[in-house]
Amino acid sequence: MTGGLTPSQTVGPFLSLVLPWPDGPFVVEESDPDAIRIFGVVYDGSGVPVGDALVETWQADPDGYFNHPDDPREKATVPLEGPLDRGLRSAAPPGGPDFRGFGRCPTGADGTYHIVTRRPGPVPTADGTPQAPHIDVSVFARGLLNRVITRIYFPEEDVANAADPVLNSVPAERRATLIAEPAEGGYRFDVRLQGAHETVFFAI
């Protein structure tokens, strides 16, 4: 007996109901002296806030290391040369503050989300090319057959951003959709799923 293809289903809206957990938006505690707040609104193609989306973030710590066993680098000091050079890097020392690197926040009825974290450090590509400090972002929402993936870059990192291989792969006129805006209390990063000012998304 041969069955047909399973019908396609969208990734929402149930994800925003069952996947979040209470401290999901807090990659670090708000009391952390190095904490920053990233917030914004998820909009659909008509400019209407999406009130049942889910935003996930994944990033390196301030020293440029991922809190994951798949990060193959040793936790010894590592020199980083080029426009991102800020001296020797090392992972957080044993017993130091926990930094899970992963955040998850459902949007509110007004489409807003927020993540409390630390500024990431620069990380290398697979071939060792330096990347500007950035945060990887996944968005799940009703009407999407798959999550969409983007990045948050920081406006103060103009030299590093200019050398970043991923940001440079984006047409110059669309790069602004990947750069957070300084705002009171942190940085604003809106996500536009479609439309004239659609956020740049990557095929991963």
Count of separate structural domains: 1
| Secondary-structure-derived class | mainly beta
User: How many beta-strand segments?
Assistant: 13
Q: What is the CA-based Rg, rounded?
A: 18 Å
> Which shape, going by the Cα principal axes?
globular
The name of the CATH topology is Protocatechuate 3,4-Dioxygenase, subunit A
The first-level CATH class is given as Mainly Beta
Amount of helix? under 10%
Proportion of strand residues: 25-35%
Instruction: Label the CATH architecture.
Output: Sandwich
Largest sheet: 5 strands, mixed
N-to-C SSE series?
HEEEEEEEEEEHEEE
In the CATH hierarchy, what is the superfamily? Aromatic compound dioxygenase
Query: In whole angstroms, how far apart are the ends?
Result: 35 Å
Give an overview in words:
- The protein is mainly β.
- It has one domain (15-64, 98-192): Sandwich (Protocatechuate 3,4-Dioxygenase, subunit A), CATH 2.60.130.10.
- Helices cover 5% and strands 27% of the residues.
- It has helices at 15-18, 158-163; strands spanning 35-43, 54-58, 78-79, 88-89, 102-106, 112-118, 123-124, 130-131, 134-140, 148-153, 181-183, 186-188, 191-192.
- The strands form 4 sheets. Strands 1, 6, 11, 12 and 13 form a 5-stranded mixed beta sheet that branches. Strands 5-2-9-10 form a 4-stranded antiparallel beta sheet.
- The longest helix is centred in the last third of the chain and has 6 residues, at 158-163.
